[in-house]
Amino acid sequence: MAKNTNEVCATGRRKCAVARVRMTPGTGKIVVNGRDVKEYFPIEALIGYITQVLKVAGYEGKVDIAANVDGGGMSGQSGAIRHGVARALLLMNDSLRPTLKSSGMLTRDARVKERKKPGQPGARRRFQFSKR
To answer: Is residue 33 part of a domain?
Structure first.
């Protein structure tokens, strides 16, 4: 099988999720792990989060996206796809950098869950103090 010359590949990350995004010129079809994006993400806000990058760049309905995403939950996975799509758009058209950069879509969101500390029920939560 011949590889498409217009195909652009990029990696996006968020929390524990990693997304490998393949972007080709097309009609705006988005496939995540072999399933349609509306089937994979039942929450409309998560789909909007992914398509937000395409709206800002002006590529909505002009590219097909195929993403393989692994790890994390739904929110982290949609964030990873969004990051990957932004990076792929940058490889397609370098003049989009100022637009995507000012929108904060090229920055990897580094917020991850804080670890649980020993002798505590959670990361910050303490057991209730009892004077007597």
So the answer is: yes
Whether the per-residue pLDDT at 2 is higher than 80: the answer is no
Q: Which two tokens stand for residue 53?
A: 């990058």
CA dist 86 and 69 (Å) reads 15
CATH number for position 16? 3.30.230.10
User: What is the pLDDT averaged over residues 55-71?
Assistant: 94
Q: Range of 20's domain?
A: 8-102
- How far apart CA 46 and CA 48 sit, in angstroms, is 5
Model confidence pLDDT, tens digit, residues 64-111: 999 999 999 999 999 999 999 999 999 999 999 999 999 999 999 999
Angle at 59 between CA 53 and CA 62, to 5 degrees: 135
Domain count, the chain: 1
